[in-house]
Design brief:
seven-stranded mixed beta sheet; about 375 residues; six-stranded mixed beta sheet; binds S-adenosyl-L-homocysteine; about 30% helix; alpha/beta; single chain; 11 helices
């Protein structure tokens, strides 16, 4: 096995519990044979730190898989995936649709696995995981006998890491249950792996405020927030999205739940549609703002913050007295503190006093490791107009 020697001092972050090693932190690489295979990582003094897949191409060249001296093989993947499954089982997170493996947070950096009924949707995000996919498939076969695997590698990551993303053709539609709702999921078609699983717990939470109220689901995707709200007694829902395909999917889901009759779907840019609703004097008891990430880079945080502020001003102005706003950011670089600051400014500008009912984050099947802040990306606030 090749041996990667860190520069002096570069071990600090690793010792503090973070698995990432950047190219600039590498002093030497001995016995290198092939990109994407596991290497042993030692500090400048030769002290053993662990093992990780190494790829010289991206600047983030190695992510530790283990700090122990153990074989990285099919058995290793069985143990890690079993531990991931066990956490979710004991936490009551196993359902028809859940995230089984969340990369670094489950000790398998570069691997995401979502489960939809009997189907495991597997996303490889590093060359190492791509090359390990035989072991991953075998491990999932052991854990879920009789199930199937749908490969849906991330194309952006694949370009960065230098492998040909494997994306299986869209499979047949599955129907999964999430709380009181049923959703159609077709792995390999559309967004994410089929559902925004990271919002599952928030959808249930928001629905608790929906009875007897009119709901606005902005950036609705498959309409999951609106479906939950309507099933929980919302009087009607208005769903907004810029994509016609997405709205067709949302309509099918509303129909499947017997709620299409009380829903209105509108296609367009939510920034404009929200402004239009405000101008028309519309009011809602529940407003959900769940936009796509407004930035993926550190240098555009300010522009993103302006975007978040604008939609939140509009969302707040659309609240009826006592109304509730569930507002989110899934941009990695927008921290919970910054998001709160943005919403505070929005509330000031909108002239709406709000109480923080709850701070929100991703569902618990997308765990956050305290020493790996990057494992948290979804932040949100549940605000009540007072
Ligand atoms: N709330 C959803 C997930 C939303 S994903 C759920 O719980 O499943 C973000 C959605 O925003 C996508 O469906 C995308 O089509 C839509 N979108 C992106 N930019 C938009 C814009 N400017 N206006 C309206 N919708 C937009």
């Amino acid at each position: 096995m090749a041996r990667l020697v860190l520069k002096r001092g570069a071990e600090q972050r690793v010792n503090a519990g973070h698995p990432w090693i950047y190219r600039t932190q590498v002093a030497d690489l001995k016995g290198f044979s092939e990109a994407g295979l596991a290497v042993e990582v030692v500090d400048a003094g030769g002290r053993y730190l662990g093992q990780g897949f190494y790829n010289p191409r991206p600047s983030l060249c190695c992510r530790l898989l283990t700090r122990r001296d153990e074989a990285i093989d099919a058995e290793f993947f069985v143990h890690r995936l079993e531990a991931a499954w066990e956490y979710r089982r004991t936490t009551g997170l196993i359902s028809d649709a859940y995230r089984l493996c969340w990369s670094e947070a489950d000790g398998l950096p570069g691997l995401v696995v979502d489960r939809y009924g009997p189907v495991s949707v597997v996303q490889c995000l590093t060359l190492g995981m791509f090359k390990a996919s035989g072991w991953i498939t075998a491990a999932l076969g052991r854990l879920f006998p009789g199930g199937s695997i749908h490969r849906l590698d991330d194309t952006t990551a694949a370009r960065l890491e230098g492998f040909d993303a494997r994306q299986d053709p869209a499979g047949p539609e599955l129907v999964v249950t999430e709380g009181n709702c049923r959703f159609g999921v077709t792995p390999g078609s559309g967004h994410k792996t089929g559902l925004y699983l990271d919002q599952a717990e928030n959808r249930v939470l928001v629905a608790r405020h929906a009875a007897g109220r009119r709901v606005l689901d902005a950036f609705c995707f498959s309409g999951a927030f609106a479906c939950h709200a309507l099933r929980s007694g919302a009087t009607e829902a208005l769903l907004l999205d810029s994509s016609a395909d997405v709205l067709a999917l949302a309509r099918r889901n509303l129909e499947m739940n017997g709620e299409a009759g009380r829903a209105l779907l509108r296609e367009g840019n939510a920034f404009d549609l929200l402004r239009g609703l405000e101008a028309a004097g519309e009011r809602f008891g529940v407003v959900v703002l769940d936009p796509p990430p407004f930035t993926r880079r550190k240098d555009s945080i300010e522009a993103a913050a302006r975007g978040y502020k604008e939609i939140n001003i509009r969302g707040l102005r659309l609240l009826e007295p006592g109304g509730v706003l569930a507002t989110f950011s899934c941009s990695h670089h927008i921290t919970p503190a910054l998001f709160e600051e943005i919403c505070r400014e929005a509330a000031g500008d909108a002239g709406v006093a709000v109480r923080v009912l709850q701070t929100l984050t991703q569902s618990r099947d997308h765990p956050v490791l305290l020493t790996i802040p990057e494992s948290r990306y979804l932040t949100g606030l549940l605000l009540e107009a007072v």
